[in-house]
Design brief:
Blueprint lengths: L6 H6 L23 E6 L14 H7 L7 E3 L5 E3 L2 E6 L5 E6 L13 H12 L18 E9 L2 E8 L32 E7 L3 E6 L12 E6 L3 H9 L5 E2 L4 H7 L3 E7 L3 E6 L9 H10 L2 H9 L4 E2 L24 H10 L6 E8 L3 H15 L3 E8 L1 H10 L5 E6 L5 H4 L17 H12 L3 H17 L4 E5 L1 E7 L2 E2 L15 E2 L3
Parallel strand pairs: 1-10, 15-16, 15-17
Antiparallel strand pairs: 2-3, 4-5, 5-7, 6-7, 8-9, 9-10, 11-19, 12-19, 13-17, 13-18, 14-18, 20-21
Length: 510
C-alpha cells in the first residue's frame, strides 16, 4: 500500500476542527521566535509518564513533550512523526515503519529501533515484567510480533498482527520513550517540540523549546501550564492577566472576557454524557434508562451551556468522526416528558426515584451540565443528587472501581472509532458503566478486523445503534470549546483530538 497511507482516516474523518486565532498578517516565520506564555488548566496531572496517564487533561499537556510513530494534524490526518513513513499491508496484518534519521530524545540520546520496539511492547503489555501502572492499549492485543531490522541505512520496525486491523494506525500515536530510562514519572523525556523543565503538584508544569527537535521548532521559548483547582479559580487568574490561554470557558465567561481576549471557538472532540451504571438498580432496567433519555432536553442543554454551540449526539461517537459518526441517532429519544413518565410507571417507578450522580468538581462545565439535567429530570419525578468529587477520586472510584449510580464526564479517543467505543466492551476494565451486550461485543470484534472501509463504516454505525437502542446512557453532545487567547498571540489551533499544541503559538509582534 501507499506510503503515508492514512488508512480509513483519510476517507472517513472529514474533520470540522477549526484552525483559529491566526491574528495578524505576518507569517510567524517573520517574527523572532521566543517569548513565554501561561496556559490555564483545571486538573492536576495524574502521571508524567505518558504510558501511565489516564486523564485527557494530562494527555493534552504531555502532547507537547512526547510523540508517537505518527501524530494527528489539524485536519484529522495521521502524519509521520518519529517514523518518516509507514505502510500497511493489503491484508491489514502487517505495519512497517521506516524511522526518521537522527531523532533526538530530550536527554541527548538518539532514537533507535530498540527504543521504538520497547515503547510499543510497553504499551501493549508485552514486556517480560510489565509495569502494572502502565495503561495497556487494549487494541494492541492483536499484535503477535514487533521486530527491528535494517533497510539499507534505515531503521525499520515491523508490527505483525494475528488478525487484520487497518485502523490500528490510530494507536501508533503511542509515545516513544528511551528504552533504558527509568525516571519518566519524575523527569519525563520524549522527542516532542518542548522538553520538560519542572513540575509542582497542583501548581504548574514548565517546559521549554527543544532546540534539537527534528521538525519545525516551536516559536515560544517557554510554556507554563498553570494548574487551578477549579475553572472559577482559573477565571480569576485570567481576569488578573496571569494566564494567556484558557480553553474551558463557559458562555458567560466568554462574554465577560471578549474585550480583553480573543475568544476562539472549536470542537472539544469529546462525547459528553450522563453515563448510567447498567448493573445498578434502577438503571439495570432498559425502560428506566429510556425514560431518562426522554426526560432530557438536549437542545436546552446546548443553549444554556454553550449558547447554542456544540452538536447533540445520540450514541458513543463524537460528531467530528466523519463517516463513522451516525448523526441520525441524535433524534432517537426526542424530549418527551409524557413518554418518560409512561416508561417509569411500566418499570414500577410511577412515583419516580432518587439517584446520585458523581461529577468531578474541577470541571465546571460538567457540574453545570448536572445542574441543568437535575432540573429536567425533576419534571418527571426523578431526583438526581449531585455529588462533587475530586478528580483523583473519580479516577479511582468511578473509572477504575465502577462505583457510582451515574456520572457526567467527557470521553476522548485516538483517531480510531474502536477507541472511542472501547468503554462499552463486555468485561473490559474501561467499561465503567457495566454495559453488557453480546451483539455489541461481536460487532466490535468484526469491525476492527474488517479491511473494507464501507463495511467498516456500516459496522460502526451498527455499534452506535446498539448503544442507542439499549439506552446504554444519555449521550448528550460533542461540546464546543471556547478558548480565551491573549490578543498578542496567534497560531492557536484546534485539533480533532483533545490536545493543547503550543508549538504553533507565537507572538504577532516582536
Amino acid at each position: 500500500m501507499k506510503k503515508f497511507f492514512a488508512c480509513f482516516l483519510l476517507a472517513a474523518i472529514a474533520m470540522t476542527a477549526l484552525c483559529a486565532c491566526k491574528g495578524g498578517t505576518k507569517d510567524p516565520e517573520e517574527n523572532s521566535k521566543g517569548g513565554a506564555v501561561v496556559v490555564g488548566i483545571t486538573q492536576d496531572l495524574d502521571s508524567l509518564d505518558p504510558h501511565k496517564a489516564v486523564a485527557a487533561g494530562t494527555r493534552e499537556v504531555l502532547y507537547n513533550i512526547f510523540e508517537g510513530l505518527v501524530k494527528p494534524d489539524k485536519d484529522g490526518k495521521l502524519v509521520p512523526a518519529v517514523a518518516e513513513s509507514y505502510e500497511i499491508s493489503a491484508d491489514g496484518k502487517t505495519y512497517t515503519f521506516v524511522l526518521r534519521d537522527g531523532v533526538k530524545f530530550h536527554n541527548g540520546g538518539t532514537v533507535t529501533a530498540d527504543d521504538v520496539v520497547y515503547s510499543l511492547n510497553r504499551c501493549a503489555g508485552r514486556l517480560e515484567n510489565p509495569d502494572p501502572e502502565v495503561q495497556v492499549v487494549a487494541a494492541f492485543s492483536v499484535i503477535s510480533d514487533i521486530t527491528a531490522s535494517k533497510n539499507g541505512d534505515k531503521d525499520v520496525v515491523t508490527v505483525t498482527l494475528t488478525s487484520p486491523n487497518t485502523e490500528l494506525i490510530g494507536y501508533f500515536t503511542c509515545n516513544i520513550v528511551p528504552k533504558d530510562y527509568a525516571d519518566q514519572a519524575k523527569s519525563p523525556v520524549g522527542t516532542g517540540p518542548f522538553k520538560f523543565v519542572s513540575y509542582k503538584p497542583m501548581d504548574s508544569l514548565v517546559m521549554e523549546r527543544f532546540e534539537d527537535y527534528h521538525g519545525e521548532k516551536a516559536h515560544l521559548a517557554k510554556v507554563t501550564f498553570s494548574i487551578s483547582e477549579s475553572a472559577d479559580a482559573a477565571f480569576l487568574k485570567l481576569q488578573a492577566g496571569n494566564i494567556d490561554i484558557f480553553p474551558y470557558l463557559t458562555v458567560d465567561q466568554a462574554e465577560q472576557l471578549k474585550d480583553q481576549f480573543n475568544i476562539e471557538v472549536g470542537s472539544m472532540s469529546l462525547v459528553q454524557g450522563l453515563f448510567l451504571n447498567n448493573a445498578r438498580k434502577p438503571f439495570d432496567d432498559i425502560r428506566v434508562r429510556q425514560a431518562v433519555n426522554y426526560a432530557v432536553d438536549k437542545a436546552e442543554v446546548l443553549q444554556m451551556l454553550n449558547g447554542g454551540y456544540g452538536t447533540a449526539i445520540g450514541s458513543g461517537v463524537y460528531s467530528t468522526f466523519g463517516l463513522y459518526y451516525d448523526g441520525s441517532l441524535a433524534s432517537l429519544y426526542g424530549h418527551d416528558e409524557a413518554k418518560a413518565k409512561e416508561l417509569l410507571a411500566a418499570a414500577g417507578y410511577a412515583d419516580g426515584f432518587t439517584f446520585t450522580v458523581k461529577v468531578p468538581s474541577n470541571y465546571t462545565y460538567h457540574v453545570q451540565t448536572a445542574e441543568v439535567l437535575a432540573n429536567q429530570l425533576k419534571k418527571v419525578g426523578i431526583t438526581m443528587k449531585i455529588e462533587l468529587i475530586e478528580w483523583a477520586s473519580w479516577l479511582s472510584d468511578v473509572y477504575k472501581g465502577h462505583d457510582c449510580d451515574a456520572t457526567i464526564i467527557g470521553l476522548d479517543s485516538q483517531l480510531a472509532p474502536s477507541d472511542i467505543l472501547k468503554y462499552y466492551v463486555g468485561g473490559s476494565t474501561k467499561n465503567f458503566i457495566n454495559y453488557n451486550s453480546d451483539e455489541f461485543d461481536r460487532l466490535y470484534t468484526e469491525a476492527q478486523a474488517t479491511v473494507d472501509t464501507n463495511a467498516k463504516v456500516d459496522l460502526y454505525h451498527q455499534l452506535q445503534a446498539c448503544l442507542a437502542n439499549d439506552a446504554a446512557s444519555v449521550f448528550l453532545q460533542s461540546p464546543s470549546l471556547m478558548v480565551a487567547v491573549n490578543k498578542k498571540l496567534a497560531g492557536y489551533t484546534f485539533y480533532p483530538v483533545y490536545v493543547q499544541d503550543m508549538a504553533s503559538v507565537y507572538y504577532k509582534e516582536n
